Automatic annotation (TrEMBL):
<keyword id="KW-0732">Signal</keyword>
<dbReference type="GO" id="GO:0030246">
    <property type="term" value="F:carbohydrate binding"/>
</dbReference>
<dbReference type="InterPro" id="IPR051505">
    <property type="entry name" value="C-type_lectin_domain"/>
</dbReference>
<dbReference type="GO" id="GO:0016477">
    <property type="term" value="P:cell migration"/>
</dbReference>
<dbReference type="GO" id="GO:0031012">
    <property type="term" value="C:extracellular matrix"/>
</dbReference>
<keyword id="KW-0430">Lectin</keyword>
<keyword id="KW-0812">Transmembrane</keyword>
<dbReference type="GO" id="GO:0009897">
    <property type="term" value="C:external side of plasma membrane"/>
</dbReference>
<keyword id="KW-1133">Transmembrane helix</keyword>
<protein>
    <submittedName>
        <fullName>CLC14 protein</fullName>
    </submittedName>
</protein>
<keyword id="KW-0472">Membrane</keyword>
<dbReference type="GO" id="GO:0050840">
    <property type="term" value="F:extracellular matrix binding"/>
</dbReference>
<dbReference type="GO" id="GO:1990430">
    <property type="term" value="F:extracellular matrix protein binding"/>
</dbReference>
């Protein structure tokens, strides 16, 4: 999971070094359960980090991590995942954002 800006910068740097074709979408553990609604006022819009290895992922995230390429669908009925989207041409806008 990505709990802060330093981790996000590290992840973005590693992906840049890998020279992957863009646009690209990577699932990094963001999920919204079927019983959880979309919350537009929250940075992760109601999504939360899946725990890794039985651990508990942090639920609070900095506002700076609330960048969405496309707002998620408003729902309280279906489980959804979101991934880290890397833009094809960062000159046209932000180089990253979350995408359902």
């Amino acid at each position: 999971w990505v709990s802060g800006e330093p981790e996000l910068r590290l992840l973005l740097g590693l992906l840049a070094e890998a020279a992957l074709p863009a646009p690209a979408l990577f699932w990094v553990g963001l999920k919204r359960n079927a019983s959880t609604c979309t919350h537009e006022e929250q940075p992760l819009r109601g999504f939360s980090w899946e725990g890794v290895g039985g651990g508990t992922a942090p639920q609070e995230v900095p506002e700076a991590l609330g960048r969405w390429v496309q707002e998620p669908l408003r729902s309280c009925l279906t489980a959804r995942c979101a991934g880290l989207h890397l833009a094809a041409d960062p000159r046209d806008g932000p180089s990253w954002g979350w995408k359902e």
